[in-house]
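Record pair follows.
FIRST:
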Amino acid sequence: MEYLAFTISAAVLFIFFNIFYLIARMRDNYSVVDIAWGGGPALVALVLFITFYFGEGVFYPAAAVLSLFILLWGGRLAGHIGARNAGKKEDFRYRAMRKNWGRRHYLHAYVKVYLFQGVLSFILILPLTLSYHFGTETLSPLGFVLLVIGAIIWFIGFYFEAVSDAELGDFKANPKNRGKIIQTGLWRYSRHPNYFGETVLWWGVFIMSLGILNVADLELWSFVGLISPLMITLLLLFVSGVPLLEKKYKDDPAYQAYAAKTSIFIPRKPRKLSSKK
């Protein structure tokens, strides 16, 4: 099949998000889709590697590395969100959506949340899909350099996301911190270090994907995967990530004091606030 990698990605994500929608309906909790955000791409990465390595009998080095990294990212994220949400009520975002949608919320949720996130996931993993579609069993010197650079960037992003998630989890687990705002660790330098980390690691994935594509000849296909990191950057910065949380805490004095000295996204040293007597 000429477009095997694209077909597999689309089919796996469609089935996966439909299964999660059924789970959400049975639990009457649309929040489970947050687990699918990491789980879907991770499953695609695994299925693509198995299909091409065991089914087609080919090994694409850069694509295999991408599969491993996306599997690590998605597995950790899905596990983290699953553990965090276990036994809890539906997240405030989905409660608000349910209220706005009224009696036909189940149909709106299926199309606007589950199918839509499936489409976003397909776009997100385009660098991986393209790497298998245009796979080669050897890497050029330039390709190897891009693979290494991308991997370093990915590790930086993964560190920020994983460590900040762990710090926040430990902070919330301490009853003494109830009602307080975390301002330690990576959260001292950014109000959203986990979102910053996720954005950075997907830029790393894109750069790694260039290692297997014909970037030296500036082929158009080499840069189609650029849609992936651009999309996640725009989503987290302007749509579903940072804006929602900033809006949630807009009337919280403690958070606003924290925001006055702390970068909203890119980590940097906290600002010193001038005190007025």
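SECOND:
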Amino acid sequence: MTTIRIQQLKEAIAPVRDRLIAHPIYQAVQTPAALRRFMEYHVYAVWDFMSLLKELQRSLTCVRVPWVPVGSANTRYLINEIVLGEESDVDELGRRVSHFELYLRAMKEAGASTEAIERLVGGIAGGVDAGIAAEAPGDAVRKFLRFTFDTIDSGETFRVAAVFTFGREDLIPDLFLPLVQELSKEGVGGFDVFRYYLERHIEVDGEHHSQLAMEMLAELCGEDERKWAVAAEAARMALEARMILWDGVLEEIEAMSEVG
């Protein structure tokens, strides 16, 4: 039954996922300048992924004292394994680094601006809503982040799990690694760290994590019809939010082309 439920959810979100896969942003990012602008938008998805993950860790594992067992061991393993990889992976020199910090390094090496995202993260202690309103660059980023934190604020762990499982950025490495590799062949410098990020993303975030995430969602939804319906809608809305983000960066890239 679990397999059937997951398959039904996948079928429900397939139309919007197909539209996301066919989004024109992937054809628009063909130059170093366009790739830099893309990174300046995509970094928000790298950052907010960690907030989804940490909410799941908070809800599905014990992060308080005294410790008590929470949930299933399989779910705890999934969450803790991904947190380990995301918060303390290794860079190209074997030094410990989070994937977000690695992405910032990649941006700086490529010449992309990190000022906006660093202001947002640096000032977030004053409140998420205020930080997004003040520092997110444009409506597309604000709407994308607002959806993420509205999901977290819902208090429904299964909803967060659905967005985490099916609204992730699993398309990015496969679509952009060939471009970065081609730029390297052409002697375009500045994207070595980004290439490493993409390769590392593929290596540590393969089918294993995806399967465990789907098992987690199935466990959280059980046989509750409402939960499965809400999960499917949340996953669909996550993909729609990603398209809003892509629309925003595509508009920026097209404006750059017109000026050039």
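COMMENT: The mean pLDDT is 89.
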